[in-house]
Design goal:
single chain, alpha+beta, 60s Ribosomal Protein L30, Chain: A, Phosphoribosyl-aminoimidazole Synthetase, Chain A, domain 2, 2 domains, 32% helix, 24% strand, binds magnesium ion
Length: 325
């Protein structure tokens, strides 16, 4: 069965769509009240974020737009040192979308939300003319109980730790679109376990970013700009899975500008570097973590290449890969 404009009318069809798919998947006492807004408990400091998801294709190896929409927002909350609590879920659906696919997407969102320990407390559904596309916006709220992480806190001597192999999501999406057969799967995942374990250990984390659109190169340039420091990397230390490495070579891509959806970079006090690395390695989704460099005085991002020279790493210029998330 396909979605029609009637599903967005606000009438009986909309009611059925919401009850049968979204409310049934997300089920929790706050959402179940079906009021005009959700009333939830709070905290002295909260983190708030929003993100829209337009990934093409909707289903890809390792995930789908629903899992991505939850993980992307949950991870942005985590990166400030917040504990994710509540999400909203707004769908813009083009007529002709498959009802069965919408069901799978909502189920994935519910599953990812459970994994991340958040509840979806509010939502919206609109149907527009089109060719069956599905777009999702998720907003999220998290509680900040301890120190918040921020780019400006990066300090000379800090260790730069990435939580695993780069480029997986990017390579999975591009493989799908180019119809290249391989086993590369998106790494899309909520990074709660890594962040929670770091927080519980008392390790001094200064800043954290999820490595999404624009890749590690872009993220580190943002941290370098905000902190007025230089980020020095060692190319040989950067984890890349072998299949992604060959894929990158084959297509002449730059791994430093390729996005992930389940990886983070943490900037950690030098004294805690080894401890933090072990904690991340022993956390869910962190087994391939590595210290990839250090923060020094100066500015920008510099990488010592595998051949021994040094090169500047810039931010992604141009469109990169459109609709990757
Ligand atoms: Mg982010």
């Amino acid at each position: 069965m396909k979605i029609t404009l009637a599903h967005g009318s606000g009438g009986q069809s909309t009611k059925e769509l919401i009850e049968k798919i979204f409310a049934a998947s997300y089920k929790n006492p706050v959402l179940d009240m079906m009021e005009d807004s959700a009333v939830v408990g709070g905290s002295a400091k909260i983190a708030v974020t929003t993100d829209s998801f337009v990934v093409n294709p909707l289903f890809f190896k390792g995930g789908n737009i629903g899992r991505l929409a939850v993980c992307g927002t949950v991870n942005d909350l985590l990166m400030r040192g917040a504990t994710p609590k509540y999400l909203t879920s707004a769908f813009i659906i083009e007529e002709g979308a498959e009802l069965s696919e919408l069901k799978l997407i909502a189920a994935s969102m519910a599953q990812a939300a459970r994994e991340a320990g958040v509840i979806i407390v509010a939502g919206d559904t609109k149907v527009i003319e089109g060719k069956g596309g599905i777009y999702i916006n998720t907003s999220g709220v998290g509680f900040v109980e301890g120190d918040d992480y921020a780019s400006f806190k990066c300090t000379q001597g800090d260790a730069i730790i990435v939580s695993g192999s780069l480029g997986d999501h990017h390579a999975a999406i591009l493989s799908h679109r180019m119809n290249i057969k391989n086993d590369i799967a998106s790494d899309v995942a909520p990074l709660c376990d890594i962040v929670k374990n770091l927080q519980n250990s008392g390790v001094e984390v200064h800043a954290m970013r999820d490595i999404t659109r624009g890749g590690l190169g872009t993220v580190l340039n943002e941290l370098a700009d905000a902190s007025g420091k230089c980020f020095e990397l060692s190319e040989s230390a950067i984890p890349v899975n072998p299949q992604v490495k060959s894929f990158v070579k084959l297509l002449g891509l730059n791994i430093m500008h390729m996005g992930n959806e389940g990886k983070l970079v943490a900037v950690v006090s030098k004294k805690d570097a080894e401890k933090a690395l072990e904690i991340i390695k022993n956390s869910k989704y962190g087994k391939d973590a590595a210290i990839v460099g250090y923060v020094s005085s100066g500015n920008g991002v510099v990488m010592e290449t595998s051949l021994g020279g040094k090169k500047k790493v810039g931010i992604l210029i141009g469109e990169g890969l459109p609709r990757i998330c």
